[in-house]
Structures are given as structure tokens and as C-alpha cells.
User: Which sequence fits this backbone?
């Protein structure tokens, strides 16, 4: 028995099962160098030319299926006219074990494993999977030119004041960051959070270690594979397609609102409680002095006139981020 629905459209079922055979054959026949360095990872390069290098990752959280559908249709269309691909591309289906099981993760959150220090999580299935993804990413960027992108596509597990938003590694070189932010405007991303330090995410890893314009993009709401409302991804899909085909960017796009991290709220003990539940909307506004959380004797309160809460989740493991407090930066 598999959790995968046999009635799924073929490209979606193939990508969700990390089956790249049709896509690989098409690009291979067109003279590209195609490789599958690991289960769920496909690289397509044009030998003898320096092109932008793009990592496109989906399913890092196994239950976030919308980007798998979006990417499956994009790849399927590109594979029908492979010469239109204008970048070197690595497609990574992240937590393939969890996707196959229809779960968010097997043992622990894969998107916290992209750092040296894994503590008690070192023996998890996700730590092993992160090692495989890191090795493939190192190899992909090793010979890449200066233009490097990593778009890690997710969907949010709770409603948001901004239906689409992104977390951007602040250490990206300014020119590349401008291009990335402008692409996000084109993709209809409503807000971005400039993040100064890693919590172990895949896209921050690529930015920090490979000089990639890396971002974790939250595209609309979580849904069941094959049943996602793809209209919520339409603008991001167009922007992604345009990037992969190397077509000129549109001249005037609405720029995302920019926020910066005020503080990570880290859960330090079992006594941790939050003043609001994990169903709280992302970017809910709090005022100076409002309580955020309690951890034993420590009470966290809002320090700025306004802070907004992103990813509130008191149920995370001890030592992990239970919420991100952000302030306006523009
Ligand atoms: Zn996610």
C-alpha cells in the first residue's frame, strides 16, 4: 500500500515518487548532461557554457504538496521544449520518505538539519537525508558560475495576513539580493523577512555556503497532493517559468513588503507556553508590552512599538524556534 493516489496526473505522481525518468530522457535526448546524484535529485546542465545555476527544492516538508504539483507541471512543459531551459537546474524533492508516507516528516523537521550542530537529532532519518541533499548541492554549485539561486518552495500550515511570503538570508550579496527580491515581487510574494542567522534551513545553507540567492518561499495553504488549488500558485509559477527560460524580467512589479527579524523565540523547557496558539495567523501584529511567551520564570514581551509573529508553534521540540518576531524594515 502506498499513500500515493493512483488517479494523480502522471507528471505529479512521477515527481512525488521522485521518478524523473520521463524528464531526464527528454533533456538527455536534447543534448543536456542529466544526472540523478541521489534519490529524488535531478541535475540538468548544458555542457560547455556558464549559465545561471538554479536549485529548485520542493517537499522539504512532506505534507506541503502544492509546490510539487506546480513544479511537476513546469518541468513537464519544459521537457516538451527542452532547448528553452536557459539555466543549469537542480530539482530536489526533499523529504521523499515523508512524501511517500503522506507525512510532514518521519522523525524530525528536515528544514532544521542544514547545520553542523544537530544534537539529539543526529540519528534521525532527516539528518541522513540532509547529508544526501548537502552532498548533491555541494557538487551542483562546485562548478557553477556567479549567478546562483536556491528557491525552496513550501506552503504555510496556518493562515497568513500575507498569503505568500518568504524568508531571505540577509547575508546574500546585495546585487543578487536585489534580483531575488525583484523576482519575488514578480512571483506575487507579499512580504519578505530578512533573516540574519540560520535555524538550519536548506535555503540559508545554500546562501551561506554556496553564495546562492537563497530563500524559503511560503506559497499559499497546505493541501492534499492532486487536490491543491493551483490558482493560488499561478503568479509564482509564471515567475519561475520565466526564470528557468531566461526570459527578460517584467519592468515594473509590485515589491514585497520587507520585514527584519527582531527576535527568535526559542523553546527552552517543557514549561514553555505561548500567549497565542499555533493557529494564529502569520504576521499577526502585537504591540509593545504584549506578552509573547513564558518559559519557566522568563516572560517574553514585545520590545518594539509593533512586532509581528511568524511561524508561532509552541509544540516544537526543546531548543527549536517556537516563533519568529519581525518588525517593518521598509
Ligand atoms: Zn514547509
Assistant:
Amino acid at each position: 500500500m502506498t499513500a500515493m493516489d493512483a488517479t494523480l496526473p502522471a507528471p505529479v505522481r512521477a515527481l512525488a515518487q521522485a521518478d524523473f525518468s520521463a524528464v531526464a530522457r527528454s533533456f538527455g535526448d536534447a543534448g543536456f548532461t542529466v544526472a540523478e546524484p541521489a534519490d529524488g535529485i535531478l541535475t540538468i546542465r548544458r555542457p560547455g557554457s556558464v549559465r545561471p545555476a538554479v536549485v529548485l527544492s520542493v517537499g522539504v516538508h512532506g505534507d506541503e504538496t502544492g509546490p510539487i504539483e506546480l513544479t511537476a507541471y513546469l518541468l513537464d512543459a519544459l521537457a516538451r521544449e527542452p532547448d528553452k531551459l536557459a539555466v543549469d537546474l537542480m530539482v530536489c524533492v526533499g523529504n521523499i520518505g515523508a512524501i511517500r508516507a503522506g507525512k510532514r516528516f518521519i522523525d524530525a523537521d528536515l528544514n532544521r538539519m542544514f547545520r553542523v550542530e544537530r544534537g539529539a537529532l543526529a540519528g534521525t532519518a532527516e539528518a541522513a537525508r540532509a547529508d544526501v541533499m548537502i552532498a548533491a548541492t555541494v557538487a551542483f554549485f562546485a562548478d557553477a558560475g556567479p549567478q546562483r539561486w536556491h528557491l525552496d518552495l513550501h506552503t504555510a500550515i496556518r493562515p497568513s495576513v500575507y498569503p505568500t511570503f518568504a524568508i531571505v538570508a540577509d547575508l546574500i550579496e546585495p546585487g543578487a539580493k536585489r534580483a531575488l527580491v525583484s523576482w519575488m515581487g514578480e512571483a506575487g510574494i507579499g512580504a519578505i523577512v530578512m533573516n540574519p542567522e540560520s535555524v538550519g534551513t536548506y535555503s540559508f545553507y545554500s546562501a551561506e555556503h554556496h553564495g546562492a540567492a537563497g530563500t524559503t518561499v511560503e506559497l499559499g495553504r497546505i493541501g492534499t497532493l492532486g487536490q491543491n488549488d493551483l490558482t493560488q500558485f499561478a503568479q509564482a509559477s509564471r515567475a519561475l517559468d520565466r526564470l528557468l527560460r531566461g526570459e527578460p524580467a517584467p519592468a515594473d512589479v509590485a515589491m514585497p513588503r520587507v520585514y527584519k527579524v527582531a527576535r527568535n523565540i526559542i523553546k527552552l523547557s517543557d514549561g514553555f507556553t505561548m500567549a497565542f496558539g499555533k493557529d494564529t495567523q502569520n504576521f499577526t501584529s502585537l504591540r509593545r508590552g504584549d506578552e509573547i511567551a513564558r518559559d519557566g520564570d522568563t516572560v517574553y514581551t514585545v520590545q518594539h512599538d509593533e512586532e509581528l509573529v511568524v511561524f508561532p508553534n509552541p509544540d516544537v521540540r526543546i531548543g527549536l524556534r517556537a516563533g519568529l518576531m519581525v518588525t517593518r524594515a521598509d
In short: The helical segments are 10-16, 21-29, 66-80, 96-101, 125-142, 174-186, 202-210, 234-245. The domain at 259-328 is CATH 2.40.50.630 (OB fold (Dihydrolipoamide Acetyltransferase, E2P)). The chain has a mean pLDDT of 93.
